[in-house]
Amino acid sequence: MVGHQDCTMEEATRDSHTPKLWRETLTAPAPFADETSCQCQAPHEKLTIAQARLGTPVDRPVRVYADGIFDLFHSGHARALMQAKTLFPNSYLLVGVCSDDLTHKFKGFTVMNEAERYEALRHCRYVDEVIRDAPWTLTPEFLEKHKIDFVAHDDIPYSSAGSDDVYKHIKEAGMFVPTQRTEGISTSDIITRIVRDYDVYARRNLQRGYTAKELNVSFINEKKYRFQNQVDKMKEKVKNVEERSKEFVNRVEEKSHDLIQKWEEKSREFIGNFLELFGPDGAWKQMFQERSSRMLQALSPKQSPT
């Protein structure tokens, strides 16, 4: 963060053995270039990429510049800035952000306004300084004003403002250092997802209390979305009732299983007792035989001895 905002380059570099004075802490957002009094006061000799990669000069960091629109700031942006920050052993990263007027003129409408985009960059850990209203094409005057050593950007030719590659003159001057794009993530991809799922987001935000006017939703679509929301609520209620019914049925089934098991046990016990009493060799047969024998003896007494 340029040490502190009230320091100068000379003060921050008196001790050439402490290059980390440039960003001792991450407890505050990066300053804006037009608001900080910490200007580059040290001699600014032109560096080659080879010299910068060796960690020279020792009395100051290598000043790297990266620019862009940074709409809907995402991980792809952050990774590009991380690469720019770590290109050299001792780097100071300046990030230029184009204004709304310039962006709308050369590229198109943005989701976030310029103030939101500036603030998003200030809170990225790799950024040391943010330059507001950055130019679309880098001029020698701009590079000199901010004492820029190298410009970091992906190496794909960026055609705009009547040029096949707006970084062509930077490359020819030996000041361009390429970074790699992160595949699978871009501002255009994010916007495409939002457009694809527009109905879902519109319905959700209507539920949250946004008005149809705020969402730019027509009267008919508003009624349709609200009806769909009501249908979804009914489906959720039915689903909850079904789940509770399933729980009830499961509990009944469990109790029924217990009752059936107990009934079977009692039935087996009853049948066992019945068979023990009335079975072929049961107690009832023995008792019946004994009674029959006594009755026969009573009816047919033994003959008198001859």
From TrEMBL:
Domain Cytidyltransferase-like: 65-193
Pfam families linked to this entry: CTP_transf_like (PF01467)
UniProt keyword Cytoplasm, yes or no: no
Organism superkingdom: Eukaryota
GO molecular function, one term: choline-phosphate cytidylyltransferase activity
Pathway(s) the chain acts in: Phospholipid metabolism; phosphatidylcholine biosynthesis; phosphatidylcholine from phosphocholine: step 1/2; Lipid metabolism
Coiled-coil portions: 224-251
Classification via PANTHER family: CHOLINE-PHOSPHATE CYTIDYLYLTRANSFERASE B, CYTIDYLYLTRANSFERASE
NCBIfam families, A to Z: cyt_tran_rel
Cited function: Catalyzes the key rate-limiting step in the CDP-choline pathway for phosphatidylcholine biosynthesis.
Name of the featured protein: choline-phosphate cytidylyltransferase
